Amino acid sequence: LDDALEDVKSITTKIDEGQGTLGALVNERETIDALNDTIENANSVIDSFSGLHAEVYYLGRVFGGTQPDDPAFFYGNPAAPNENGGFGYAGSNNLGLELHPQEDFWWIFEINDYPQGVIRAQEHYFPESGAHWTEWTRDLDYRFTFQMSKRWWNIAFRLGVKESGGGIGASWYLARDRLMINADAFDFTFGPYPALESSGLPNLRVGARLEPLHHVWLEAGGEQILLGARYGYATGYLGAGFHFSDDDIKLLFATLPLGF
Fold it and tell me: Contact at 8 Å (CB) between 244 and 54?
């Protein structure tokens, strides 16, 4: 017992003198301050996630437009094709999720089936002859969006990947946020396909979104505005959708009966 007490006394003496890791933690002020800062930062991260607000939405759009005369557009209007010429139309579905760690900042995730599909380019090289060529393919695949958005007063800006291409956008909120004027420029690489000589010209989409009823959206706007202006055709869209938040889901479950 005396030996055990001597060992305990030796350990506590070393801790009081600041020896070892535990002694530094207990006695050195800088170490304590650094540990407190780490704990505060961790709590801040945890609080940001605990206050995360989510919103889910769906938008259905119908694109309609005239057909370009340029032979480069071998399948007609990219968003509203009609191989026989004249007016064409096509539909699109958009399913999205917004995550709001703060009221004025959020992340946007979206998947959609844009009528044009997904454009890809693959380079082919022939070392023997030194020749190379680019193969362009168009697949009726899904497009993905991942953007961050920041709001200042009645204006919000967003930046990131828009429909599987780089994109920027802005929204102007009016009528107590019941009306939005939106503008997006995206897909600077493949946006003008199949007019490859216009590479670098993005898809410009400008439209308005109205919320006539709570959770319900109505939309109208113009599509591929820059490309249409260059090649002499026009494309517009009409849309409708709905959105709900995690608070709405909680309220729904609260109204459900708990037993049978």
Answer: no
Question: What is the CA 200 to chain-centroid distance, rounded?
Answer: 21
Burial of 33 (0-12, 13-18, 19+ CB in 10 A): exposed
Q: Which domains does the chain have, with CATH numbers?
A: 2-49 (no CATH), 53-250 (2.40.160)
The stretches of the chain forming alpha helices (DSSP H) are: 2-16, 20-27, 29-50, 225-231, 246-255
167 SS3 class: strand
Distance in angstroms (rounded) separating the CA atoms of residues 81 and 195:
15
Strands 165-174 and 118-126, how do they pair? unpaired
In this predicted structure, the answer to whether residue 159 has a pLDDT above a threshold of 90 is yes
Interval 55-83: pLDDT, tens: 999 999 999 999 999 988 988 999 999 98
Backbone angles phi, psi at 175, to 5 degrees: 50, 50
CA torsion, points 227, 229, 233, 239, in degrees to nearest 10? 70
Amino acid letter, residue 69: D
- 16 versus 100: the higher-pLDDT residue is 100
Please give the distance of CA 113 from its chain centroid, rounded to a whole number. Answer: 15
Round to the nearest angstrom and report the end-to-end CA distance of the chain. 65
